[in-house]
Amino acid sequence: MSCHPTTYHNVTVSDGTNVAYAEAGSPSLPLLLLLHGFPSSNNQYRNFIPLLAPTHHVIAPDLPGFGLTTTPANYTFTFANLASTIGLFLSALNITRYAVYIFDYGAPVGLRLALKSPDAITAIVSQNGNAYNEGFGHPFWDPIMALWENDTAANRAVLRDNALTLDFTKLQYTAGVPAEDLPLIDPVTYTYDYLQNIQTPAKQEIQLSLLYDYRTNVDLYPAFHTYFRDTQVPLFAIWGKGDPAFIPPGAEAFKTDLPGAKIEFVDSGHFALETKGEEIAGKVKRFLKAVGH
């Protein structure tokens, strides 16, 4: 049995959201917040957390709209609100200083938290977590950006029929992964993501709202870049180089504002932890130790 078992909890924060989260590692250790992406939940970190727990106190919440987190009936699904809820979650757990691992949707959530409380964040690990226009992969983003330009029923239908499907959820796990590594991907992962976060019409409306609102994160890119320049926060970008959504130039772009950023690539896709989890965990722990967290 692990000396650092993962435990599962819920806490209701002041906006009425009941946040589900996983936790592992001694509270006496440096805290590492894991923020997941679309279309997953903290389940994407199920194998990663035990690798980090010997050296870090790990907290991994389900974002509103994902996993087992539940929201009030009047909750509006925007990235501003997702970040606000996670900020309230951190306050509820009395977390005031932490390193953050950002991935996909977790990137704008984490960086919005950084804008609000820059001194709270000691280091950032970005695993395919974008903050630059150079990182958008095409044609992956084309129908989403078409929605940003023109929020019509027709453009929403394109995404509903093509992106909010089990086949596309699977593609996000398998695209860009070397053929010899594909058997490492557990089909339960993308099946659970689809069933839990996408399948029903109500869930699809949540996801469409967030896909449309993602444009507001791009609007904040200049503010994110100013935060990087002003703080020179230690940052490690570890990227699955075959990711069709967030491509390698997005990792390299961090050097523009953070000349000391560490940039590395692994031979995997978007959900790189599924095939390169142990390698990434080792690199992350070495980076955090080197920056004193």
Write structural notes for this entry:
This protein has 13 helices and eight strands. It is of the alpha/beta class. A hairpin with a 5-residue loop joins strand 1 and strand 2.
Describe the secondary structure blueprint for this structure:
Elements: E1 7-12, E2 18-24, E3 31-35, H1 49-52, E4 57-61, H2 79-92, E5 98-102, H3 106-116, E6 121-126, H4 142-149, H5 153-162, H6 166-174, H7 187-197, H8 201-213, H9 215-219, H10 221-231, E7 235-240, H11 248-252, H12 254-257, E8 262-266, H13 273-290
Parallel strand pairs: 3-4, 3-5, 5-6, 6-7, 7-8
Antiparallel strand pairs: 1-2, 2-4
Helix pairs in contact: 2-3, 4-5, 6-7
Care to count the β-strands? 8
Beta fraction of the residues?
Answer: 15-25%
Report the sheet with the most strands, covering strand number, pairing sense and barrel closure. 8 strands, mixed
- Residue windows where pLDDT falls under 50 for at least 5 positions: none
Protein traits:
13 helices, 42% helix, eight-stranded mixed beta sheet, alpha/beta
Summarize it:
The protein has 293 residues and is of the alpha/beta class.
